[in-house]
Amino acid sequence: MASGDCTSFGGAITPIRLTLTHSRSYIKQMKHHLPVFSEISSSSEQIAGSEGLLTEIFLRLPPKSLLRFQCVSKHWLSLISNAHFHRLHTLRNATSSASTVGVFLCRHPNYDFLALNEERISEMGRIYDRLSDLRGSKVVCNINSCNGLLCVGFKSDDAKTDFYIYNLTTGHQRYIPVPDTMVVKSMNLAFDPKISDDYYVVCVWFSVSENRLRFSVYSSGSGIWRHSNEHCNKVDLCSYGGVFWKGAVHWFSQTSPFLCLQVETCVFKSMPSTNIPEGQWYRNIEYFGESGGHLHLIEIHMPQDIEFDVLELKSDYSCWFVKYRVNLEFLTNLYPIMVNQEVYPPEDYNFPYAFSTLCFLTDEENRARVLISLPGKIVVFDIHNGMVKELADIQPDSFRNFIGGARYDCFDAYKYVETLAFV
């Protein structure tokens, strides 16, 4: 019988008689333990009555628990919702992609949230509902995430796009005013809670008069846009979101050198690119993102490849090096639909394997995992122990509409970590 279940038995109900044969010794034992019970009760009252002790305990708890504890009493609500407490908690529990609990998936015009474990499924549902209320009848577009905050654009029927910074944990949002002179191509978040509770929005916009891309940086602290003197003509820079790492936003290109803009100075910084394979005019980068305090990249050199390297950029920006080598051939036995001839004849399709890498994840214990999208499923593969776990079933509208036959790719996925950071 499961704990908490009730089972009834047939027949007459017989009263239970309690025989206290050792009542005196029991009373003596109770007297002996009463001071202990009193001490526990007294300690609890002291903690509950001490604002300093409560604050110290709350600072050690995750945001999810704190949001629930706000309902315990007005006193707790006042402590937890206090702006100073939010700043302290955000600083002490500086979030990073190492603590990713979910992934926001968006492929125009649809979006969804994917929990990385079962405990988070209902939470992802609440986040989805909140974002749906904020969106209304508008279309979600131009998304970027960084350390728990989400930059999202909502496009209305008149083609006007409003941009918001959204905290997925608290549900708070902030409207970002964009000058009419800036034709926005991409919005990129820069937020490092270990350094400041302010965040920055790096906008890549098209200057019609100059016929080139320009860069501007918005500060949440000042509410002012700073315009950089830097510019570029890399058209595909707008196709992929930038990645914030070490005080700068980084962009990759499939055909040109990579780009790095320092947020504080609004000045370009040199960074190495990967080589374009001989005989090709482009790279085939499948993933570009930050994880565990490092910048990573996954590149598949040939469409026929089912193995790939996870590259990591050295902290001194000197070069990219191979961090992990991954071979997914064993997955074709578990999921035969990965082999595209199961869906289309080989002569009709250039990609023999249908999969995409959504995210590369490392946690506090340096455990490396890859989130993989297959036709009909999303799975997570642990590089260290070789284990595969199914996370979700999905229904592709048409495999032919998606890169490599998979439902999503890395440019549709945005990491979600918990934070109490103000927006």
TrEMBL record:
SMART domains: FBOX (SM00256). SUPFAM superfamilies: F-box domain. It comes from the Eukaryota. CDD domains: F-box_AtFBW1-like (cd22157). Residues 49-88 form the F-box domain. InterPro entries: At3g26010-like, F-box-assoc_dom_typ1, F-box-assoc_interact_dom, F-box-like_dom_sf, F-box_dom. Pfam families: F-box (PF00646), FBA_1 (PF07734). This is F-box domain-containing protein.
